[in-house]
Amino acid sequence: MEMILNDSDMVVGAIFENGTIQDYVNKENTYGLIRYENTTANWFLYNDLDSPTDIRRLYEKVIEKEHFIKNDFGEEIVLFNKDGKISYEDLVKKIDEYLDDEIMSSSF
Questions:
Q1: Nearest to 37 by CA among 101, 87, 97
Q2: CA-to-CA distance for 14 and 43, rounded, in angstroms?
Q3: Source organism's superkingdom (predicted)?
Q4: What is the pLDDT of residues 5-64, one digit of tens each?
Q5: In terms of CB atoms within 10 Å, which end of the chain has fewer, N or C?
Q6: Cβ distance 16 to 2 under 8 Å?
């Protein structure tokens, strides 16, 4: 996975085989986009204790419609607005890889 950096050398996404991940795609910077083969979905991280108000509002709105949540001990990866045939589970695997790579690259 190749990280995409902004002008300040901060990770803002990644390119991987057959896809891309972006951290933020809306002007409020509340959710990102994953493209994998012919499938797209929006995503964000949510933590019931630490998420700011705008993320909490987005979470409440998203869970009323079709969505997928992977809970990792309180930190949730939330996917919504999926379009395509790739499963939510496969999309979450790619997001997990991205987050793991991002953590590893920022720890050096």
A1: 87
A2: 14
A3: Bacteria
A4: 999 888 899 999 999 999 999 999 999 999 999 999 999 999 999 999 999 999 999 999
A5: C
A6: yes
- Tokens at residue 26, please? 């809306």
Render pLDDT for 6-20 as a digit per residue (tens, 0 to 9).
998 888 999 999 999
Side chain identity at 39, as an amino acid letter?
A: T
Distance (Å, rounded) from C-alpha 106 to C-alpha 99?
11
Q: Which residue has the tokens 């809306």?
A: 26
Report the candidate in 64, 75, 68 with the shortest Cα–Cα distance to residue 100: 75
Q: Is the pTM of this model over 0.70?
A: yes
User: What value does the CA radius of gyration of the chain take, rounded to a whole number of Å?
Assistant: 13
Judge contact between 31 and 25, C-beta under 8 A. Answer: yes
| Amino acid at the residue 7 | D
Contact 107, 99 (CB under 8 A): no
